[in-house]
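Handout, section B. The chain below has 119 residues.
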Amino acid sequence: MNARIEDVRRSRRRRVEGRIEVFDGMTEAPIGQLGNLSESGLLLLASAPLQDDCLYQLRFVLPDLFGRPVTFEVGAHLLWVNPTNPPGQAWMGFRFLSMEDGLVDRLREWIDAPGATYV
């Protein structure tokens, strides 16, 4: 299991510019915004309370290379939560468990797009 965690951490993470909202795929409620994104997971600035070490269905929209919206629906495991100051928000780290076929390639294109910045 440790090797898998190291692999996840080695994934290149693209910093998200602007506001990209993330929604709970089950309730359709907004839960926060993307902080950064990799092939294997995401950093969320959450505005809704979520339970650590639980599974979630998340939905967010990214532009493709031509600016067209692409909807991503992913199964994700909430690995950690770090409350922010002031209270009411938290940074949360998720690992992807599932993603529709074909969307992994679209995600890679977005991560590797010209002009992207990485953390």
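Note. The two ends are 24 Å apart (CA to CA). Compare this with the example in section A.
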